[in-house]
Design brief:
The protein is mostly beta strands and 119 residues long. Helices cover 0% and strands 51% of the residues.
C-alpha cells in the first residue's frame, strides 16, 4: 500500500518561497511508469494541477505556474519536493501530493497540507 505524506510550512508572507516535501512509503519514486504530482485547491475553488516529476526524473509544469515552479526529487529518501517562488495570497490553498498512474489518473493521495500566504 503506497502512502504519501506532505510536510512543510503552513504560513508564509508574500514574496517568500514555498517548499513542500512529499515522502513516499510502500513504493519507489523510480518505479516505471508513475508520475509524482503536486496539486492544490484554493478555498472555494477546484483542484489545480501544479506539475509532476516522472519516474525518469523528467518534469512538467502547469504553464500558468511554470515560471515560479520547480519540482525535484531525492531518490535516496524517496521524496519529491515542490518549490514555488514569490508567493502571493493567491497561492493560499490546500496542497496535495499524489501518484499519477498515467493520463492524470491519481491512485494515491497525501492527506493535504494547508498553506496560507498572508502579510
Amino acid at each position: 500500500q503506497v502512502q504519501l505524506q506532505e510536510s512543510g510550512p503552513g504560513l508564509l508572507t508574500p514574496s517568500q518561497s514555498l517548499s513542500l516535501t512529499c515522502t513516499i512509503s510502500g513504493g519507489s519514486i523510480t518505479t516505471d511508469y508513475y508520475y509524482w504530482s503536486w496539486l492544490r485547491q484554493p478555498p472555494g475553488k477546484g483542484l489545480e494541477w501544479i506539475g509532476h516529476i516522472a519516474y525518469s526524473g523528467g518534469t512538467d509544469y502547469n504553464p500558468s505556474l511554470n515560471s515560479r515552479t520547480t519540482i525535484s526529487r531525492d531518490t535516496a529518501e524517496n521524496q519529491f519536493t515542490l518549490h514555488l517562488t514569490s508567493v502571493t495570497p493567491a497561492d493560499t490553498a490546500v496542497y496535495f501530493c499524489a501518484r499519477d498512474a498515467g493520463y492524470y489518473c491519481y491512485d494515491y493521495w497525501g492527506q493535504g497540507t494547508q498553506v496560507t500566504v498572508s502579510s
